[in-house]
Amino acid sequence: MAKDRKNTEKDIAKKIKLEPPTYFLLYLLLGLVLHFVVPVKKLIIFPYTLIGVLLIVVGIWLNVWADSLFKRANTTVKPSEKSSTLVLEGPYRLSRHPMYLGMVIALLGVAIMLGSLVSFLGTIVCFITLQAIFIPHEERAMEETFGEAYTEYKKRVRSWI
Q1: For the segment 63-106, what is each residue's pLDDT rounded down to a tens digit?
Q2: Contact, 146 vs 86, CB < 8 A?
Q3: How many domains does one find in the chain?
């Protein structure tokens, strides 16, 4: 009986794969909670906090733009699924991971709007998570799928910016 339950738990764990947007939301929540629960030194004051609004808009715009290119190319945006097309236009000319860049820029914008030191923690941890967990997996998968075309792309375009 206990063995069956362990197998069921493993099956459930395999099915529940957290995608980058989920991490983005978790780290957004982390930054907000830390700001209000652990109010540490205020680094940025009004009106400079309004720069955060601009960064949030830029981050969202970058995500929407990059996502629309994937949809137009009829390929998946999910890192756990196999891509069918190598998208090289738009923001992909400057960054191999513009959606991740957009997430980090938006989180940075929220941190600047909040202005407290601890609110930047969510941004930092999100960057580390994307860099350590998702990017290596994606880059290996892209090299396997697209071979030399992706290797050449990697030589021309930086990972972030």
Answers
A1: 999 999 999 999 999 888 889 999 999 999 999 999 999 999 99
A2: yes
A3: 1
> How far apart are the C-alpha atoms of 132 and 135, rounded to whole Å?
7
14 within some domain: no
The CA-CA-CA angle for residues 148, 100, 150, to 5°, reads 5
Q: What angle do CA 148, 154, 157 make, to 5 degrees?
A: 140
Query: Which tokens is 135 given?
Result: 């990017």
- Please count the other Cβ atoms lying within 10 Å of the Cβ belonging to residue 74: 8
Provide the whole-model pTM: 0.87
- Can you give the C-alpha Rg of the chain in angstroms? 18
For helices 98-114 and 121-129, give the axis angle rounded to 10 degrees.
170
Residue 107's contacts (CB-CB under 8 Å, 6 or more residues apart) are: 24, 27, 28, 31, 59, 122, 123, 126
Q: Which distant-in-sequence residues (6+ apart) come within 8 Å of 88 by Cβ? A: 153
Rounded distance between C-alpha atoms, residue 85 and residue 123, angstroms? 30
CATH number of domain containing 129:
1.20.120.1630
Residue 84, classified by CB atoms within 10 Å of its CB into exposed (0-12), middle (13-18) or buried (19+), is exposed
